[in-house]
Design brief:
344 residues, 9 strands, disordered N terminus, DUF8094, DUF8094 domain-containing protein
Length: 344
C-alpha cells in the first residue's frame, strides 16, 4: 500500500471514530433532557392526628358536667362539683353558690345550657386535652356560652375548666369539622399575631389603661370595656363629694395557663384566666356600701366603712389572627364574677 493510500485509510478510520463519539455525545445530551437531575424531596408528611372525641362522646361529657352543676345547684354545695368542674370555673361557681345560699335564690347563678350549636374537638394525642363547646341561647335569652372542657390525664374525666358569655353580636371564627379535629395551640405559639400568653396579658393592660395602653390599637373595641368604663364613671361621680377614688386593676392569672386552639384560617381561639381588684375609697368618716346584689351577698351584714374592695375571677376569650394578618385581635366573650369582698 502506498503512503497516500495508507493516509486515506487512517482518515476514514478517524472519521468513523469521530462519528461514533459524536453519536455518544448526542445520546448523552438527549438523555439529559429526558431524565431531570434528582432534586431533594421532602419527607412524606404523616397523616394528621385524628380527633380524640366524637361529637356523641362530647355530648356525654357535657351531660355529665351539667349533672354535676345541677346537683351542686340544688344543694348549694360546691362539693358536688368535684371531678367535673375545675380551674376558674370552680372558683366562679363556688362563689355563685355561696351567693345563692345567702340570697335564698339562684337567679344570679350563670345558666349553662347542655344543648350546643358547635363543638371544637381536639386532636391532641397527649394530655391535657381541651375541647370547646358553644351552647344554644339560654332560656333567659342571654348570649350563648363558650365552655372549655379539659381532661388532665388518660384516667381522668373531662372537667369544665372555664366558660364565658359571648359578647352580643360577636361572630365566632371558623374551625375544622369535628370529624377532622382541631390542633391545640401552645401558649408560646409564634405563628400568630402575638402568642396566646401575650394576647391575654396585653388585653389586661388595655383593660387597665384604656386608650393609654400601648396595645390599645391591636384590639377591636368591645362592649365589656364599655361596661367597665360606665361603672367606673358612676363610682367616680358617687365618690367625688367624699374625696373618694375608684380603681380597677386586672392581672393575668399565673397559676392558669391559657388554653388555645387553631382556627380554620390559621389563627387561634384563646381563652385565659385573670383576676381583678376593684377598690372604692373615701375620706375618713364616710361610708362606701356595696352596690350590686352579688357584692351585697358576699359582704353580708358587716357595717360599711370608707373602703370597699371587691375581688373578681375573670375569664376572657379572644380571637388572635395568624402572623402577618392586618386584622385586630377580637374579644369574643368574658366572665367577670365577684368572689370576695372586704371593707378595709
Amino acid at each position: 500500500m502506498t503512503s497516500t493510500a495508507r493516509d486515506t485509510a487512517r482518515a476514514r478510520r478517524a472519521r468513523r471514530h469521530l462519528g461514533v463519539a459524536g453519536g455518544l455525545v448526542g445520546v448523552l445530551l438527549l438523555g439529559a433532557c429526558a431524565v431531570p437531575l434528582p432534586t431533594p424531596q421532602p419527607d412524606p408528611t404523616q397523616d394528621p392526628a385524628p380527633p380524640v372525641l366524637t361529637e356523641s362522646q362530647e355530648t356525654v361529657v357535657l351531660d355529665a358536667v351539667a349533672s354535676a352543676l345541677a346537683a351542686a345547684g340544688e344543694s348549694n354545695d360546691p362539693a358536688q362539683l368535684d371531678g367535673r368542674v375545675t380551674g376558674p370555673a370552680l372558683a366562679i361557681r363556688t362563689s355563685q353558690l355561696a351567693v345563692a345560699a345567702a340570697r335564698g335564690n339562684a337567679d344570679l347563678v350563670t345558666e349553662l345550657p347542655t344543648d350546643v350549636q358547635q363543638v371544637v374537638i381536639p386532636t391532641t394525642q397527649t394530655w391535657p386535652r381541651t375541647s370547646y363547646a358553644v351552647s344554644v341561647q339560654p332560656e333567659s335569652l342571654q348570649t350563648p356560652r363558650l365552655s372549655v372542657l379539659e381532661q388532665a390525664g388518660a384516667r381522668d374525666a373531662y372537667e369544665l375548666w372555664a366558660w364565658v358569655r359571648l359578647l352580643p353580636g360577636v361572630t365566632m371564627p371558623s374551625f375544622a369539622d369535628p370529624s377532622i379535629g382541631s390542633e391545640a395551640v401552645a401558649p408560646d405559639d409564634s405563628d400568630l399575631l402575638v402568642t396566646p400568653t401575650d394576647a391575654v396579658a396585653q388585653y389586661a393592660d388595655v383593660l387597665n389603661l384604656g386608650g393609654g395602653s400601648g396595645f390599645a390599637g391591636a384590639f377591636e373595641d368591645d362592649s365589656f370595656r364599655t361596661q367597665l368604663a360606665d361603672r367606673a364613671q358612676a363610682w367616680t361621680t358617687a365618690l367625688e363629694p367624699a374625696a373618694g377614688q375608684y380603681a380597677l386593676t386586672f392581672t393575668p392569672n399565673p397559676d392558669e395557663q391559657v388554653r388555645a386552639v387553631r382556627t380554620a384560617d390559621g389563627g387561634a381561639l384563646v381563652v385565659g384566666a385573670m383576676t381583678s381588684l376593684e377598690s372604692m375609697t373615701a375620706e375618713e368618716g364616710a361610708q362606701v356600701p356595696p352596690d350590686l346584689e352579688t357584692i351585697k351577698a358576699l359582704y353580708g351584714t358587716t357595717a360599711p366603712t370608707n373602703v370597699l374592695k371587691v375581688g373578681y375571677v375573670d375569664v376572657v376569650a379572644l380571637y388572635v389572627p395568624p402572623a402577618g394578618s392586618e386584622e385586630k385581635i377580637r374579644v369574643l366573650g368574658n366572665e367577670h364574677v365577684a368572689t370576695s369582698v372586704a371593707n378595709a
